[in-house]
Write a structure and sequence with these properties.
mainly alpha
Length: 144
């Protein structure tokens, strides 16, 4: 065998090893691509399911928001109906406060009149005692 033939054999052997290596590599790449394809398919199914669930949830949330708006309108109406009651209660409180102040003033006046009356009673008793004393003394002088 000549040197060219040996070189051709070595080149053919290297080429055969390269082809085997490429075949093994392509098989592995094929498996990976198959798994990626399966993953993408599952992801698409999941996205479809999630999209359907989100659509259902958005419809339910929209219905809930509509009911909430109706309820809020009802509550606002009832609060508006109660405003006059609270206003009347406030006015009643002011009236009670005014009545309390007037009662306090009347009590103070009655107390003041009571004190003045007590002083006048003491003064009149003293005057009556002085008058009796004077009359008794006069009668005693007249008898003498």
């Amino acid at each position: 065998m000549t040197g060219g033939q040996i070189a051709a054999l070595i080149a053919a052997g290297a080429f055969a090893v390269l082809v085997v290596f490429l075949i093994v590599m392509l098989l592995k790449v094929t498996k990976v691509l198959t798994r990626v394809s399966e993953t993408v398919t599952e992801a698409n199914k999941s996205v479809t399911t999630i999209t359907n669930d989100v659509d259902v949830l958005s419809r339910q949330v929209e219905g809930l928001l509509n009911k909430t708006n109706v309820l809020l309108d009802d509550v606002n109406g009832k609060v508006a109906d109660l405003d006059p009651v609270f206003h009347a209660a406030g006015e009643l409180g002011e009236s009670v406060s005014s009545l309390n102040a007037a009662s306090r003033g009347l009590t103070e006046k009655v107390t003041s009149v009571g004190r003045t009356t007590a002083k006048a009673t003491v003064a009149s008793k003293m005057g009556a005692s002085a008058l009796r004393f004077y009359q008794n003394r006069r009668q005693t002088k007249d008898k003498e």
